[in-house]
Write a structure and sequence with these properties.
heterodimer; A: 196 residues; mainly alpha; 8 helices; 64% helix; globular; disordered C terminus; B: eleven-stranded antiparallel beta sheet; 31% helix
């Protein structure tokens, strides 16, 4: 049971900053796992550190009536990862794609090269379906599936009503199943769609 | 836990931190935390006098480089470009022809295959909450690895389907330029340099070019990008009335040298990346061009292909 101790440590850290170390030590590994799953291992240590530095800087905004800090940290991590991705996208040089096979769930259109026919095809369909989700639906789905957060925790993490989380998750799962079943990859550019 | 959840967990496997990972996180966290908050010292009269003297020397000694002079002239041109209003249903459109190095490894295999893949990319971006459509058409690969043709077939011809156009749409896609609201080169450069990894001029140039690659960037942002590039240590390769071709000067911390051509209005027309390192396992030496592309300037269009069922 770590929840009540989280709120107490964060509140105490406003007077005594060293107390924030408790939060860092308690959740460092969880947040690292979350980060690696979203951006791969290369920059994960830096991004994880950024999550806690940002959390430290905005700890005065923490709602101390919420005993468990995990949803708050996942919310911050979601934003930091988004920020990192934006920067990576503008830095991305396809030349640097040497040996990069990490699949980025929220990458715009990954050029990753992967091999192995059937498994890859299935993985490709799943990744394509995931990319076709709206950003919020995708975030909700991944927090539920990978981090196993409850509706309430996801609502806290993403600052949205619980009912919206529920409908978002249902919509995302339905959409994913449909796309996984049908396969949405189509070929051939519509001639009418050519730019004038 | 649903079957879908299990598939997602397989797609994004758990990666527990090693002790080395923890060490890196700790070091980064402590370093950055130590910089919070930023301490400010009052400017003493002596310090101010030194700064004034240095500034005066700088003004008399320094003259703008040719790169800076050319790009500074372009800044005004880029900023004055008039852009038509984007209405509902209108798309930004751009396309590129590129050749890039692809590297693949077989599942559970140490064998590595390297090949060059020509790709045509067409992109339709519908601003603000719209849909972005990407169509890619691959050409025939050029296998680089000795004996690689057999590997290529055995790997299932990974990553490409020659001649086939793959069209996908994404509602939540946002070009990086759409999230940057800066018309000031200094602010923009500070923002680009913020991540610890962006620590060289080549990396700043790469980041800046990303904002205007296949991009709906505003005239102000294009002008700011030109301003950022003007301040970097670049080599002037070629110059015409309305374009400059520039090259970065890689340091030991860079693994790429970038050559690019940019038009006076801030449209990127060409980019080539050459590796500065050898990759012995795939037979690639420093200087090898791993990515080369020509870009059409971004323009507007009323139509985009339907990727099917959206």
């Amino acid at each position: 049971m770590t929840g009540p101790r989280d709120a107490a440590a964060i509140v105490a850290s406003l007077e005594n900053p060293e107390r924030f170390d408790e939060i860092y030590r308690r959740y460092r590994d969880d947040i690292f796992r979350f980060v690696v799953r979203r951006i791969g291992p290369d920059d994960a240590a830096d991004v994880t550190a950024d999550v806690f530095v940002r959390a430290f800087r905005i700890r005065h905004r923490y709602d101390s009536s919420r005993p468990d800090a995990r949803p708050w940290l996942y919310g911050i991590a979601t934003n930091v990862v988004g920020d990192h991705r934006r920067r990576m996208r503008i830095r991305r040089s396809r030349a640097a794609s040497i040996a990069v096979t990490w699949l980025e769930p929220e990458a715009e259109f990954t050029d990753s090269v992967v091999a192995g026919a059937d498994a890859v095809a299935q993985r490709d369909r799943l990744a394509t379906a995931l990319r076709s989700l709206g950003r919020r639906d995708r975030q909700v789905l991944l927090l539920a599936a990978l981090e196993e957060l409850t509706y309430q925790q996801i609502a806290e993490a993403l600052d949205m009503p619980v009912g919206t989380v529920r409908s978002s998750l249902n919509r995302a799962r339905r959409h994913m199943r449909e796309l996984m079943t049908e396969g949405k990859r189509t070929t051939g550019v519509d001639e009418a769609g050519e730019p004038s | 836990m649903t079957d879908l959840d299990n598939q997602l967990r397989n797609l994004f496997p758990d990666h527990a931190p090693s002790e080395a990972d923890r060490g890196r996180i700790d070091a980064a966290y402590r370093t950055r935390l130590a910089a919070t908050p930023v301490r400010r010292w009052p400017l003493t009269a002596a310090t101010a006098a030194i700064l004034v003297a240095v500034a005066a020397i700088g003004v008399t000694i320094l003259t703008p480089s040719r790169v800076e002079a050319a790009l500074t002239e372009f800044v005004d041109i880029a900023r004055s470009v008039e852009v038509a209003d984007i209405e509902d249903g209108t798309f930004w459109y751009t396309e590129s022809e590129s050749v890039h190095l692809a590297v693949a490894q077989g599942p559970g295999s140490e064998e590595t295959l390297a090949y060059l893949l020509p790709v045509r990319r067409q992109i339709w971006i519908q601003p603000v909450g719209g849909v972005t459509v990407l169509a890619t058409t691959s050409g025939e690969p050029t296998i680089l690895t000795p004996g690689g043709t057999e590997l290529y077939e055995r790997f299932g011809r990974p990553g490409d389907r020659p001649g086939e156009t793959i069209t996908v749409a994404q509602e939540s896609y946002e070009h990086p330029a759409e999230g940057v609201d800066s018309s000031d080169p200094d602010d923009l450069e500070a923002w680009l340099r913020a991540p610890a990894q962006v620590d060289t001029d080549t990396k700043v140039a790469a980041a800046a070019l990303g904002l205007i690659t296949e991009s709906p960037a505003t005239p102000d942002l294009r002008a700011a990008v030109l301003g950022v590039l003007a301040a970097l240590d670049l080599t002037l390769v070629d110059e015409t009335e309305d374009t400059v071709t520039l090259q970065t000067r890689p340091t030991d911390a860079d693994d790429t040298q970038i050559t690019f051509t940019i038009r006076a209005d801030g449209q990127l027309l060409y980019r080539a990346d050459a590796t500065t390192r050898d990759f012995d396992d795939i037979g690639i030496e420093a200087g090898f061009v791993t990515f080369e592309a020509t870009y059409q300037p971004t323009r507007t269009t009323d139509t985009a292909p339907d990727p099917g069922g959206r």
